[in-house]
Amino acid sequence: MLVRGTPVGAHVITRRVAIGAFSDVYSGLHAVDGTPVAIKVLSASSCLHAELVARFLNEGQALRDLRHPGLVRALEVGLLPEGPPFIVLEWLPADLEQSLARAGGRLPVWACAEVLAQVAEALGALHAQGLVHRDVKPANVLVARMDEEGITVKLADLGLAKRVSTGPEASSALPVSTAGTAVLGSWEFMAPEQWLDAKRVDARVDVYALGILGFLLLVGRLPFGSGTQTELMIRHLRMPPPLQLLGDEVPESLRGLLGRMMAKSAGARPSLVEVRECVAGLVRR
After folding, report:
1. Closest by alpha carbon to 209, among 157, 249, 173, 174?
2. 157, 252: one domain
3. Tell me: the pLDDT tens digits for 218-267?
4. Together in a domain, 67 and 181
């Protein structure tokens, strides 16, 4: 654990705000102008695994290279004197999971539409650079603003991002090789093909996860619930999404869109452009 006042590049630690499976997140300040930041530091145990170090550096490099308003900004990437790598990010104090809890577990249709539109746009920017996120979920959507006038969110955490293009349009992020049978992602949001082979997926797994996110925002519960790895795998592979749980206030167009986004067959899912076009009339102007 880093103590208050520890220098991290051009910034200093103020306190630890979150402990993750592979890294810790601290709040910090720019040493000169006092701008608040978030500082993500890979844990000592994770530093023992080359794959985890590569993923972490992959995330930092990708966020630094990709400049898009819908993606959290990386301000600095480097190594601490003790060795662990760090990423300094713009400060956004809450994620969608926390904001959803404060809102009573559900969002109105217009707010859900705004989240879907903004995350779809951010994912489109990633996909255009040959990257698939593979871990779209409320905890990885940071909230810049949320009030009665509107909601502004930014997609974060590219730790599981996969490069699917190596052409000139692809990001310069480091390639990461993972174990052939590894299940990579958050179980409640993983597309059927991601369960079967996480290494051979494409952008359509992000569409699936975004559909589950939209369902959660509107219903207040996950479409396939929680449970063991085996239980969730079977549900995602075989169980149709329970669209009947969507309330009467959800327009038929949005209901149908979410159903298509959660289709078992990747080829049956809509494009992100279709997602944005469908929700465009539901957002607040």
Report:
1. 157
2. yes
3. 999 999 999 999 999 999 999 999 999 999 999 999 999 999 999 999 99
4. no
Name the DSSP class of 137: S
| Residue bearing tokens 């996909």 | 127
Alpha carbon distance 185, 187 (integer Å): 6
Domain boundary among 36, 63, 90: 90
User: What is the 3-state secondary structure of 192-249?
Assistant: HHHHHCCCCCCCHHHHHHHHHHHHHHHHCCCCCCCCCHHHHHHHHHHCCCCHHHCCCC
For residue range 169-219, list pLDDT tens digits in order.
444 444 444 444 456 789 999 999 999 988 889 999 999 999 999 999 999
Chain centroid to CA 160: 9
| DSSP element (H, E) containing 37 | strand 36-42
Do residues 103 and 243 share a domain?
yes
CA distance 212 to 214: 5
d(CA 112, CA 146): 12
Same domain, 112 and 207: yes
Catalytic member of 24, 135, 157, 206: 135
135 is catalytic: yes
Six token digits for residue 226: 């929680």
Q: What is the mean pLDDT of residues 102-112?
A: 93
Q: Is residue 2 included in any domain, yes or no?
A: no
Q: Which domain holds residue 121?
A: 94-282
> What count of residues does the chain have?
285
